[in-house]
Amino acid sequence: MIIRPDYIEAIKPYIDVPLVKILAGVRRCGKSTILAMMAAELKKRGIGSEHIIERRYNEMEIDENFTAKDMYSDLKYAVQGKGRCYLFLDELQEVDGWEKTVNSLLEGFDVDIYVTGSNSKLMSSEISTYLTGRYVLIPVYTLSFKEYMSFRNKDLSEARTMFDEYIQYGGFPIIGISSFDTRSAYQIVEGIFASVITRDISKRHQIRNKELFDRVVRYIIENVGMTFSASSIVKFLKSENRSLSVEAIYNYIKWLTEAFIIYPCKRFDLQGKAVLKTQEKYYLSDISLRYCQTGFDRKMLSAMFENVVFLEMKRRGYDVYIGKNSTKEIDFVGIRREERIYVQVCVELPAESTRETDNLMEIKDHYHKYVVCRDPLAIGNDNGIEIVHIADFLLRENW
């Protein structure tokens, strides 16, 4: 088991705090491993194995008739008479009504509860009803570049070379710990993707026209980092002699978001200081999800660089937006408590243009501004705007 210490550090403050710790993220991003890491952490602290109760609720390990009541009976029996117990409950979304069981255990027994799930409905209204104020969400992502380097046992001197590998393979842990060629790696990711699309979306939401749904999903994946709307997808489908309502497309986007296939990135008006409701973009939970559908093509590097930076900002706790400044656009505005950063992303700085820095120059506040690129020579500072290699940016402790 390869340790992901950032997640352990994020969870540690909540050990023995009466809150349900919810780890949520796309399938196969490493949530189960983090639960195992937490169990090991508790054992290091002297907690006996008999007080650590672990259950996995995926489809292969529970009967299809298994209910929340069955879950409650099992866990009640497991903790009774033992004093303080620690419950590690993996992939809970497979059990309808699980939140009632967790709430009953929290109220009726001396337990500290950690759960994982691959669907953001873990944060739905039902949970708000049963666990009001008694849960903390810890988002789990695929491997950061720093973690990928660690999984590959590489040091900082190899960072720029390793970034070229990372941008081709993505960050699913199973890829990071293995030595697959790109074709094999993309086949594995395709299996993960198909599992989410089939099990978490098509089956759960009883999608009748799977072929049309798949076409919409492919359109979204091919347009990562670009502005599009449900109406523009409808128009595109009409050009292919297909028909689908705007409402259906909104549902598809919602379900893809709930399953952590995509993350929305809304626009932020820097002048009005308001989040806008139109022209949002979407980014993938891992760049390899695009490669497994379309193959790797260097023409898509710009969008993939953006995707990687977007995810890194999310990992570090920023709310991430597209910046709108009058007629100019900033790739990303990151807001975290009282902090703010501005980031422009490109593959290489254009030789005879200053457009990447011009957009940032018009922002007159004192927050950090970056142009992030892969150009090894274009490093430095331009009127307070730091130009930094993307590998160095991703590995930097503080921005």
Can you tell me the overall shape? Answer: globular
* Largest sheet data: 8 strands, mixed
Strand order of the largest sheet: 8-7-10-11-12-13-15-14
- Count the beta strands: 15
| Low-confidence spans | none
Residue share in β-strands: 15-25%
- Total tally of structural domains: 2
Helix content: 40-55%
Radius of gyration: 22 Å
Could you please describe the fold and organization of this structure?
- The protein has 2 domains: 5-139, Rossmann fold, CATH 3.40.50; 145-395, no CATH class.
- The chain has helices spanning 5-11, 31-44, 68-79, 98-108, 125-130, 145-151, 159-169, 173-176, 182-203, 210-222, 230-239, 246-258, 288-294, 301-315, 355-361, 390-395, and strands spanning 20-24, 52-56, 85-90, 111-117, 135-139, 262-265, 267-269, 274-275, 281-284, 319-325, 328-336, 339-345, 368-373, 380-382, 385-389.
- The longest helix has 22 residues, at 182-203.
- The chain has 399 residues and is of the alpha/beta class.
- The model has no long low-confidence stretch (mean pLDDT 92).
Quick structural gist:
This protein is an alpha/beta fold and 399 residues long. The protein is 41% helix and 20% strand. The protein is globular.
